[in-house]
Amino acid sequence: MKTAILGGSYNPVHLGHLALGRAVHEAGYDCVLFIPASCPPHKTLAGGAQDMDRVAMLELALENHPWAQVWDGELQRSGFSYTFDTILQLKKEGLVTGRPGLVIGDDLAPGFRNWYQVDHLLTEVDILLARREEEQDVPVDFPCHRLKNPLWPHSSTAIRHAIALGAGLEDYLPLNVAQYIQERGLYGRG
């Protein structure tokens, strides 16, 4: 099975994540593995949801997408969540074989060469470059396949802010995720 890996904070998972996952699937991947990050080395996770909430919201968001799965292995490890370590663990557990696709946003492309074990990582995966920036052809100095995903104008930070203000969420989140957030009083909503 041809698998792609789509990591992120998913704090919360939103319609932009689902649209990107769908674009990866339509690019020829049988399975898109959504991986909530534990301690990403390049950013600090915002509060508002526990790890179990992020996993639960992902499972709700993906329940009608047979091509998608959630893997919470990074949440089980301690320390930083390095992509290279995640790939090795996924291969060891038999969850991916061969060269899986690894989705990264084109906003991360300029710093990609600084990632942990980047040269080894490039031997293990095929990079799928997702559009995040308005510019169509962000320059890269590594082999990649550019996805034709739709641009998503709403950041998770902006969505958390909208939730805290009590804004309608139908334009941002799957309905069942919005209900979960409301029921659990996440992000100041309750």
**Residue share in helices?**
25-40%
CATH superfamily: HUPs
Biggest sheet character: 6 strands, parallel
How many whole angstroms does the radius of gyration measure?
Answer: 16 Å
Q: Strand arrangement, largest sheet?
A: 3-2-1-4-5-6
Low-confidence stretches: none
Which labels suit this protein?
190 residues, Rossmann fold, six-stranded parallel beta sheet, globular
What's the topology here?
Elements: E1 3-8, H1 15-26, E2 31-36, H2 51-62, E3 68-70, H3 73-76, H4 83-92, E4 101-105, H5 118-124, E5 126-130, E6 145-146, H6 156-164, H7 175-184
Parallel strand pairs: 1-2, 1-4, 2-3, 4-5, 5-6
Helix pairs in contact: 2-7
Provide an overview of this structure:
The protein has 190 residues and is α/β, with parallel strands linked by helices. It has seven helices and six strands; from the N terminus they run βαβαβααβαββαα. Strands 3-2-1-4-5-6 form a six-stranded parallel β-sheet. Helix 2 (51-62) packs antiparallel against helix 7. The longest helix has 12 residues, at 15-26. It starts with a strand and ends in a 6-residue tail after the last helix. The relative contact order is 0.20.
